[in-house]
């Protein structure tokens, strides 16, 4: 356990040195295909560590609970700190933990440990009903967690969150980034009508936009977008974001938010695998308890 805490402490120290020397992690540099190459290399690294575990003591140590528990302690502490500090996209150090090197290195280390545990269980898996009831929930939980962690992290570079200002009767195909850079979109949106319902005091109760969407693939979609009810077209989710507050219900302008996250299906797959693993644990564990109670009663 001491070695595990020393390794975790060493990673945090190395992360602090990187933060001071090169600045926070630049996730934008991991856009596709770089993140795909990094993922392939990371999987290869995990496989190499596993294959050499019997020759290198450090590699063998990584796959033990003595490495896992200290790593989890560091991760929990850093996550609590993240929850207690204000997180902003342009923040530095503790105010942007997702780009803070110590935080990133600890979670990469946990992913490596997780990979070793998964490979060891797969290698030792025995094809029998009893063992499968034990191994399937374990693999679903751990593989799901590994998939969700890695794809959510690397896929973050490919996520786009843009604002589009649409004016009634004028098709718009340009959107703005958070840095106010103009991006030409693969879809064009025309505002047909802005809709607002108000309370008796005049405050907005509901606002939405009747829009027409044209895509490069030839789609022509007439739909309504409102708050918390997005429309999905060609991998983009279109949300109602805002309007001309000075004009209110007479607004001729609607502000839409367009979000693309191509790695999100993989993240959801990992989450669903964990849920399936939890269900399997409940079902198989429940049956085991019933059998144990019957055997004890017979005695």
Task: Chart the SSEs and their pairings.
Layout: H1 2-22, H2 34-51, H3 57-62, H4 65-84, H5 101-124, H6 129-155, E1 160-167, E2 172-176, E3 182-198, E4 204-215, E5 220-226, E6 231-233, E7 236-243, E8 253-260, H7 264-298
Antiparallel strand pairs: 1-8, 2-3, 3-4, 4-5, 6-7, 7-8
Describe the protein's architecture and organization.
The chain is an alpha+beta fold. It has seven helices and eight strands; from the N terminus they run ααααααββββββββα. The chain has helices at 2-22, 34-51, 57-62, 65-84, 101-124, 129-155, 264-298, and strands spanning 160-167, 172-176, 182-198, 204-215, 220-226, 231-233, 236-243, 253-260. The protein has a four-stranded antiparallel beta sheet, with no helix packed on it. It has a four-stranded antiparallel beta sheet with strand order 2-3-4-5, with no helix packed on it. Helix 1 (2-22) crosses helix 4 (65-84), helix 2 crosses helix 5 and helix 6 (129-155) packs antiparallel against helix 7 (264-298). The two termini are 42 Å apart.
């Amino acid at each position: 356990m001491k070695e595990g805490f020393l390794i975790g402490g060493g990673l945090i120290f190395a992360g602090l040195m990187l933060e001071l020397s090169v600045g926070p992690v630049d996730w934008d540099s991991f856009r596709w295909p770089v993140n795909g190459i990094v993922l392939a290399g990371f999987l290869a690294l995990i496989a190499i560590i596993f294959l050499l575990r019997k020759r290198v003591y450090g590699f063998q140590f990584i796959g033990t609970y003595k490495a896992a528990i200290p790593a989890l302690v560091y991760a929990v502490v850093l996550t609590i700190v993240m929850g207690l500090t204000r997180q902003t996209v342009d923040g530095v150090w503790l105010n942007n933990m997702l780009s803070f090197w110590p935080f990133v290195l600890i979670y990469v280390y946990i992913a490596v440990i997780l990979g070793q545990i998964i490979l060891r269980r797969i290698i030792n898996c025995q094809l029998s009903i009893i063992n499968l009831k034990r191994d399937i929930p374990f693999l679903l939980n751990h593989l799901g967690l590994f998939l969700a962690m890695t794809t959510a992290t690397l896929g973050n570079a490919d996520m786009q969150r843009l604002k589009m200002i649409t004016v009634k009767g004028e098709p718009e195909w340009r959107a703005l980034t958070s840095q106010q850079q103009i991006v030409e979109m693969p879809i064009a949106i025309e505002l047909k009508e802005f809709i607002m319902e108000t309370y008796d005091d005049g405050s907005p109760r509901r606002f939405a936009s009747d829009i027409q969407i044209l895509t490069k693939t030839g789609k022509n979609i007439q739909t309504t977008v409102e708050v918390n009810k997005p429309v999905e077209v060609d991998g983009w989710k279109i949300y109602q974001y805002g309007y001309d507050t000075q004009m209110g219900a007479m607004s001729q302008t609607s502000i839409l938010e367009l979000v693309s996250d191509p790695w999100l299906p993989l993240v959801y797959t990992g989450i669903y695998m964990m849920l399936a693993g939890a269900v399997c644990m409940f079902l198989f564990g429940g049956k085991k308890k019933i059998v144990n109670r019957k055997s004890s009663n017979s005695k």
